[in-house]
Design brief:
This protein has 13 helices and 25 strands. The protein is of the alpha/beta class. The strands form eight sheets. It has an eight-stranded mixed sheet, with helices on both faces. It has a five-stranded mixed sheet with strand order 21-20-24-22-23, covered by helices on one side. Helix 12 links the parallel strand 20 and strand 21. The longest helix is centred in the first third of the chain and has 36 residues. The relative contact order is 0.10.
Length: 577
């Protein structure tokens, strides 16, 4: 437990509930509040050398007489088949009972702590703004919101002390379908955008819809007019076209407590910083380990780095979060019970979440989905923006989306394409292999084509529209003269895309059918052995098939991302400038 939590009656450290009973020499589980406040300081649950042995009889209890035993039985004493058998059984019975007690007691302590962590969480019903869940075979999108609410000791000195808590720092955290990489997209707080109508749950259980707002700052999607995190989720979806599953919200105290729980967050400064105007951060050049108030001042400063803009502060915050991720995944944190419990306490106290992940068990499930992502495959980026053209020169305070740069970036996130260098290289290798295969297939299409009446093909529906096989058969026979085509109904299994399977000695027939249907080279799947005479080819219609004669819907190409799009990998320490 952290220092702030120790000694408070409503926050019990399970490790401190085992108390030595000096009368019996045994450790006992104390569940009362008084025990939490008066417990002796102990290192581990083992019997003190000065304490009486656990098996010694308590004062006032008579010792069993030698003749005592089961009714009608032999007097107690030595076993005929070996010395001390009765004593061993008794010792085994005592040991088993003690073990059972410890297990039950430990489970009770664990449950109490689990329940305690659950009670720490602040849960919001976002009235359907998110998907309400996540699936193991789909990407996950979590909106991380840092508010500028100044509640908490010492926080009133940062800017507007009366803020209702706007979306001051917002990151859309996209986790890939295969859980190998993630993209963290920062959305500038001063971005001019449209906030859609927002149903919000009221304390009495009713729903109130807050009207839309056009051409306003993004940060007012939270707090303003009573908007909750669900309003920010809806705004992000409208802005990016990306469906948000869940949100996590944290205030200023989260930065303080989490940075302290991990033992400080390492940062590097390329130059000295003395922000007397805003955060009052004062640090020399070089490396520092920040926690508590200093950590908050670092992520809040707008006058220490770059050109004193919010966009430069976003970069500093991304560097800080990347460093905190590395600390949380470090061996020193994961193997330290004290740090681990402090993190659990700090995180649950600091977090606000939607009801879809509003319990420790659900958060644990989510953590299980994220745990194997290497920090080298986590990329921080920022939604590309331009100065607001509606504002006069010299008074630029807001920004608008740079659509030319933003759309390719958003398309990559929507298409679950990683931004990390590792994934880029693998994608480039895959694209090169696909291009080579396509070139070979294209060459196959350049040869002779069989007469339409000689084309033999069996048509299957493997994911196309209902009745697609029958419709295609009629079209081939009546419009293209391919009378030897046949309809085989539904395929044994669905396919991802339409494909034509044929043998090398059927290449001329395959070319004729591909020409008639407009099949791309990527749909052609040639086997290795020749087919028997009069054997048909196999055409399986996939979800890209709409109707005969219509071109297949091609998979969207991966857009080229401009070098002007800001990126930073979470595994790399960068000195703030």
């Amino acid at each position: 437990m952290d220092a702030q939590s120790r000694g408070r009656a409503d926050e019990i450290d399970p490790a401190d509930q085992w108390v030595l009973n000096p009368r019996t020499g045994s450790y006992e589980l104390q569940l009362g509040d008084s025990a939490a406040q008066q417990r002796p300081k102990i290192a581990a649950p083992r019997r003190s050398a000065s304490a009486p042995a656990p098996t010694a009889p308590s004062p006032g209890v008579p010792k069993p007489r030698r003749g005592d035993g089961p009714p009608g039985g032999r007097r107690g004493g030595r076993s005929r088949k070996g010395g001390g058998g009765g004593r061993r059984k008794k010792a085994l019975l005592i040991t088993s009972g003690t073990l059972a007690f410890l297990l039950v007691g430990g489970a009770a302590a664990a449950y109490l702590y689990y329940d305690h962590l659950n009670s720490n969480l602040s849960v919001t019903d976002v009235a359907g703004a998110g998907t309400g869940g996540f699936k193991k075979d789909q990407a996950i999108n979590i909106l991380v919101i840092g508010t500028d609410k100044r509640s908490g000791a010492g926080n009133e000195g940062y800017g507007d002390k009366d803020s209702v808590g706007h979306a001051d720092t917002t990151i859309l955290f996209h986790v890939s379908k295969d859980r190998t990489n993630a993209t963290a997209l920062s959305i500038p707080r001063d971005l001019i955008t449209n906030i859609p109508a927002c149903p919000t749950k009221q304390p009495d259980g009713s729903t109130k819809t807050i009207g839309p707002s056009k051409g306003t700052r993004f940060n007012t999607s939270l707090g303003q007019e009573g908007r909750d995190a669900g309003c920010t989720m809806r705004t992000v979806k409208e802005l990016t076209g990306i469906e948000v599953d869940h949100f996590m919200m944290a205030d200023f105290n989260a930065v303080k407590t989490l940075s302290t729980a991990v033992g400080g967050v390492p940062v590097c400064l390329a130059k000295a910083v003395n922000d007397e105007e805003g955060s009052h951060l004062k640090l020399g050049p070089g490396e520092h380990r920040l926690e508590g108030e200093q950590a908050l001042a670092f992520v809040r400063t707008r006058h220490g780095f770059g050109n004193n803009s919010d966009l430069d502060r976003i970069r500093i915050q991304q560097q800080f979060l990347g460093s905190m991720m590395r600390e949380m995944k470090s061996k020193e944190t994961l193997t330290s019970p004290k740090k681990f419990l402090s993190l659990a306490e700090a995180a649950t106290k600091s977090l606000g979440v939607d009801s879809g992940i509003g319990s420790i068990s659900k958060l644990t499930d989510l953590a299980g989905e994220l745990k194997n992502i290497d920090t080298k495959n986590i990329t921080f980026t920022t939604l590309p923006v331009l100065d607001n053209p509606a504002e006069p020169e010299g008074s630029k305070a807001t920004v608008v989306v740079d659509k030319a740069l933003a759309e390719p970036l958003l398309q990559m996130i929507r298409g679950d394409v990683s931004l990390t260098e590792v994934e880029k290289k693998e994608q480039a290798a895959k694209e090169a292999a696909d291009a080579d295969a396509k070139a070979k297939q294209d060459a196959l299409l350049q040869g002779n084509k069989a007469p339409a009446g000689d084309v033999r093909v069996s048509v299957y529906n493997g994911g196309g529209p209902k009745g697609a096989a029958s419709t295609t058969l009629n079209w081939l026979q009546n419009n293209k003269g391919m009378s030897k085509a046949s309809n085989q109904g539904n395929a044994p299994a669905k396919v991802g895309a339409t494909q034509l399977e044929y043998a090398p000695n059927q290449a001329d027939q395959a070319r004729a059918l591909a020409d008639a249907l407009g099949l791309p080279a990527t749909a052609m799947k040639m086997g290795t052995a020749d087919a028997a005479a009069k054997a048909p080819m196999k055409l399986t219609l996939g979800p890209d098939f709409k109707e005969p004669g219509a071109p297949l819907s091609a998979a969207p190409a991966v857009p080229a991302l401009s070098d002007d799009v800001q990126q930073a990998q979470a595994d790399k320490a960068v000195c703030a400038k």
